[in-house]
Write a structure and sequence with these properties.
By secondary structure, the protein is mainly α. The protein is built from six helices and no strands. Helix 2 crosses helix 3 and helix 2 packs across helix 4. It is globular. The relative contact order is 0.20.
Length: 78
């Protein structure tokens, strides 16, 4: 996967072995569309962000996953 606008999401996908295919399946789009949504500003809708979080990372926050700058998981717990 190309460098994402969402480095925390990219890190978590890699950490847990998820791929772009899993993201695409979660939100019901093609691989190409999923890639565009994760790499082009303002393409990903809030409802899609929530769906990805609910399906793949229910224990993490949307704010953490979709931050445009890296945030440590430890700071999320506070």
């Amino acid at each position: 996967m190309k460098r994402s606008l969402y480095p925390n999401l990219e890190a978590e996908l890699n950490r847990y072995g998820y791929s772009l295919y899993d993201v695409a399946s979660s939100i019901g789009v093609t691989l190409s569309t999923a890639s565009e949504k994760l790499n082009k500003p303002r393409r990903l809708k809030l409802c899609e962000s929530v769906k990805i979080r609910d399906d793949l990372f229910p224990y993490l926050t949307v704010d953490y996953l979709f931050a445009e700058t890296p945030i440590s998981q430890a700071s999320q717990a506070s």
